[in-house]
Write a structure and sequence with these properties.
Organism (chain B): marine sediment metagenome
Number of helices of chain A: 13
Distance between the termini of chain A: 49 Å
Number of domains of chain A: 2
Helix content of chain C: 40-55%
Strand content of chain A: 15-25%
CATH superfamily of chain C: Pyruvate-ferredoxin oxidoreductase, PFOR, domain III
Oligomer: heterotrimer
GO molecular function (chain B): oxidoreductase activity, acting on the aldehyde or oxo group of donors, iron-sulfur protein as acceptor; thiamine pyrophosphate binding
Largest sheet of chain C: 6 strands, mixed
Protein name (chain B): Thiamine pyrophosphate enzyme TPP-binding domain-containing protein
Helix content of chain A: 25-40%
Shape of chain C: globular
CATH architecture of chain C: 3-Layer(aba) Sandwich
Number of strands of chain C: 6
Strand content of chain C: 15-25%
Keywords (chain B): Oxidoreductase
Pfam families (chain B): TPP_enzyme_C
Mean pLDDT of chain C: 93
Number of strands of chain A: 18
CATH class of chain C: Alpha Beta
CATH class of the largest domain in chain A: Alpha Beta
CATH superfamily of the largest domain in chain A: Thiamin diphosphate (ThDP)-binding fold, Pyr/PP domains
Mean pLDDT of chain A: 97
Structural class of chain A: alpha/beta
Chains: A alpha/beta, B alpha/beta, C alpha/beta
């Protein structure tokens, strides 16, 4: 893995007062993203607006496509043209992108998609928050594959995780998602952007061998194949069909096994390296609250209240939601009295928690259909209930 | 052995095709192969840098073309070859980008992308092999199936109006529009060569026999019968008004070069406009600054 | 921790008020300030609002529930948001545009002819800056220096001086009111 410093041209060093959407655009520019294709959709549009305003002076392309399907297709094309690329969207647009997200996985194309989640289903609540695409991001395209998904809880983290997302996508040649939400996307807070030389980026894993020897899908020692860009003379082929290491269609069960297993295992086997959690007072905890995104901030307030009331409660904030921190939850399930899972949906990540806990402790879900964040009191009451 | 003799033994298209993937999947009598032959000829004659040439296909019989041509080649999803190519071109403007796909891909599921790429005058060539039906999936009715023709999902005949692709392309903003049949091997190659020498959105429609499905279902005979139909019913009308070139079932096929004009491309417009508005702060994108 | 709501009608620069105050607090006054706003048709309509939660530590709950400071620059916004104001809160209104009811509890009401002052300065569009100056003087939650530092980038460059003037006008007016308020007590 080759690390490089960020190009100062894209880095707006300093302290700013930005909303999460703007911070995503700044994160992308700092991460070296020079291609953005998107379609306007509330509450993510401000990222496209910011990128379109900033990119002419940085050097790159912004294009507003005819829909989200075109946007994600253009992204994959742009990455194979040699650029780092990003798009943002929300529920309805995310649904439209699903087929080509599968293509990006199949072609092992590194790119970043931010979903500033709103209430669904369908048009739902365009201007109000939700966390209802947490399963869709993992399972939304057909077939078996793995992706990486990160959850920011603030504008600052929109910036920070955007850089992480680009780096992870390059390391694993996989589409990487930033699962933000309307609340974080639209809230303004202080965002500190470090100097370019303090921002570490992962360079694309460029193939340096002889032109006619390039195999786009031959895994390297770290499981990840090398990449090239169109126009460098390799005359390579890539397809959405099940393929061999040359990228040629190989339509049988034997190659399906090799191809799909690779897509899945390159993430599963590196899960420990990918997963980032924020744990607090876990060691003596009887109750653990698992949350992510904006919900984890509200949770912190409830937890402070609970600790004042003498309840031993710890928290886990999922910065990485996918791959899911299976191992850690399994380990804790043995010694914990109960888990509490608040999220702004009617039961998504709680299912993963339940799966990992394997019935060893109760898992109490605090659902919320969206439109608002939880009342901290609601979470406090659940913690109190669980501690009895 | 003289060098010339040695050359004769080689398949003339060997350096342009992925010989390790031949034989191809197309049926005997299918016209796609001949369109690819014309394409190979155009590539060779145009003398463009093949290392800087990329081909993008969608899904369908013609969608497989990208897999056989020895260029940087992308076999994408159904209908999305054009937006994929848009990203490819914009990321690396020195590429010559060709979209090679079928009528279902380009005018059916991908119709919206087609008109928008033409509207933007995106610098690419779109070659659409039109065989009047969805062949890969078994001969279903398409946006291009002539009215009254029979298809597996129009078993009593097609009662919808069909698209006239040259008209659609011109109306949307294409700067080069031509139509030929697969029988017009040389003229197809010449049009492709012209398009390769141009900038902007070029569209070439090639009417192609689908012997196995469309022809059989409509009792139009074998490959030879179809060739005869193309030969007798096509009428070359360069510069024809594209409003007049629609295709009726077994009717006249008006072919030729209909549109050939110059207009700034998407990137030309972007660079010119941003340069004007932002002045020195803006450096033209995709142009060498040395 | 304080909760503040700026309210008025679309076009008065209500969101801008939240942005300027939030930026001033976060970047120049060493506080943590989270700004949220109403979106969609309601944001463009007759009662538009931006909310600010201010704290020494990280803001955990981003929305406001019972603000202690309410700024209303239109009658409709006042009617809509006054009931949620804490009964020991502070209410700031535009003197000419809002007719307030007798105040409840210990609510203190202060009014400033912000739109009229702005018109006197040459442009009613800067009424929000007059109000921000007034807000700064009355609430003392943010320093006037920080507020002025926050202006570049949030008001058009060529109107920066005019905006500062408007801010000063509101600020001085607020200071004067506070001094007058203190006077009777000394007697």
């Amino acid at each position: 893995m080759k690390k490089v410093k960020a190009d100062p041209k894209g880095v707006l060093t300093g302290a700013h007062y930005l909303d999460g959407d703007y911070a995503l655009a700044e994160g992308a520019l700092a991460a070296g993203c020079r291609f953005f294709a998107g379609y306007p959709i509330t509450p993510s549009t401000e990222t496209a607006e910011r990128f379109s305003e900033r990119i002419p002076s940085v050097g790159g392309v912004f294009i507003q496509m005819e829909d989200e399907i075109a946007s994600i297709a253009a992204l994959i094309g742009a990455v194979w043209g040699g650029k780092k690329a990003m798009t943002v969207t929300s529920g309805p647009g995310f649904s439209l992108m699903m087929e080509n997200i599968g293509l990006a996985c199949m072609m092992e194309t590194p790119l970043v998609i931010a979903n500033v989640q709103r209430g669904g289903p369908s048009t739902g609540l365009p201007t109000l928050t939700g966390q209802q695409d947490m399963m869709q991001v993992k399972w939304g395209s057909h077939g078996d594959y793995e992706i990486i998904a990160l959850c920011p809880d603030s504008p600052q983290e929109c910036f920070d995780l955007c850089i992480d997302a680009f780096n992870l996508s390059e390391i694993y040649r996989v589409p990487t998602f930033i699962m933000a939400d309307e609340c974080v996307g639209h809230m303004h807070e202080k965002v500190v952007i470090p100097p370019a030389e303090e921002i570490e980026l992962v360079e694309r894993k460029w193939f340096k061998g002889p032109k006619d020897k390039y195999l786009p899908y031959k895994p390297d020692k770290d499981m990840i194949p090398f990449m090239v860009k169109a126009g460098d003379g390799h005359r390579f082929h890539t397809t959405g069909l099940t393929h061999d290491e040359r990228g040629y269609p190989a339509l049988n069960a034997e190659f399906q096994e090799v191809c799909v297993r690779h897509l899945v295992e390159k993430i599963r086997m590196n899960a420990d390296k990918i997963i980032k959690l924020e744990e607090d007072e876990i060691d003596n905890a009887e109750i653990i609250v698992i949350s992510y995104g904006i919900t984890s901030r509200v949770t912190t307030r409830a937890v402070q209240q609970a600790r004042k009331a003498g309840i031993k409660v710890g928290t886990i904030r999922l910065i990485t939601v996918w791959p899911f921190p299976e191992k850690r939850i399994k380990e804790l399930a043995k010694k914990i009295k109960a888990f509490v899972v608040p999220e702004i949906n009617y039961g998504q990540i709680v299912r993963e928690v339940e799966r990992c806990v394997e019935g060893q402790a109760p898992v109490i879900h605090i659902p919320h259909c969206g439109g608002w964040v939880h009342d901290p009191d609601e979470i406090f009451k659940a913690i109190k209930e669980a501690s009895k | 052995m003289k060098e010339e003799d040695h050359l004769e033994e080689k398949n003339p298209m060997e350096d342009l095709l992925r010989m390790d993937r031949i034989p191809h999947i197309w049926c005997p009598g299918c016209g796609i192969g001949t369109v690819v032959t014309s394409f190979a000829e155009a590539l060779r004659k145009s003398k463009i840098d093949l290392d800087k040439t990329a081909i993008v296909s969608g899904i369908g019989c013609t969608g497989r073309v990208a897999g056989y041509v020895k260029l940087d080649s992308f076999h994408t999803t159904h209908g999305r070859a054009i937006p994929f190519a848009t990203g490819l071109k914009l990321a690396n403007p020195e590429l010559k980008v060709i979209v090679f796909s079928g009528d279902g891909d380009i005018a059916g599921i991908g119709g919206n992308h087609f008109i928008h790429a033409a509207r933007r005058n995106m610098d690419m060539i779109v070659i659409c092999v039109n065989n009047f039906n969805y062949a890969m999936t078994g001969g279903q009715v398409a946006a291009t199936t002539p009215t009254t023709a029979n298809a597996s999902t129009a078993p009593y005949g097609n009662y919808e109006y069909s698209f006239s692709l040259p008209y659609l392309a011109e109306a949307s903003g294409a700067t080069y529009v031509a139509r030929w049949t697969a029988l017009h091997l040389r003229r197809v190659a010449k049009s492709m060569q012209e398009a390769l020498g141009k900038r902007g959105f070029s569209f070439i429609e090639v009417i192609t026999p689908c012997v196995t499905l469309y022809a059989r279902r409509n009792r139009l005979g074998d490959g030879l019968n179809l060739m005869k139909y193309y030969y007798e019913k096509s009428e070359i009308q360069h510069g024809a008004d594209t409003r007049t070139v629609d295709i009726s079932y077994q009717g006249k096929l008006i072919v030729g070069k209909f549109v050939d004009k110059e207009k700034p491309t998407f990137l030309d417009c972007m660079n010119e406009h941003l340069g004007k508005v932002l002045g020195d702060k803006y450096k033209s994108y995709g142009v060498s600054h040395e | 921790m304080s909760e503040i709501r700026f309210s008025g009608f679309g076009g008065q620069g209500i969101i801008r008020c939240g942005l300027i105050a939030g930026k001033a607090l976060s970047l120049f006054d060493n506080k943590q300030a989270t700004m949220t706003q109403s979106f969609g048709p309601e944001a463009r309509g007759s009662a538009c609002s931006s909310q600010l939660v201010v704290s020494d530590d990280r803001v955990l709950y981003p929305y406001i529930s019972a603000p202690e400071i309410l700024i209303s620059m239109s009658q409709e916004a006042y009617e809509k948001y006054e009931p949620e104001l804490r009964d020991d809160g502070i209410l700031l209104i535009d003197k000419d545009l809002v007719k307030s009811k007798p105040s409840r509890g210990k609510i203190k009401t202060y009014s400033v002819p912000s739109t009229r002052f702005a018109e006197e300065l040459g442009n009613r569009i800067i009424a929000n800056l007059v109000m921000l100056g007034f807000f700064t003087a009355i609430t003392r939650i943010v320093s006037p220096e920080a507020m002025k530092k926050a202006l570049p980038g949030l008001v058009p460059g060529r109107f920066l001086e005019l905006n500062k003037k408007a801010f000063d006008k509101g600020y001085e007016y607020g200071k004067k009111i506070l001094t007058e308020e203190k006077k009777p007590k000394k007697k």
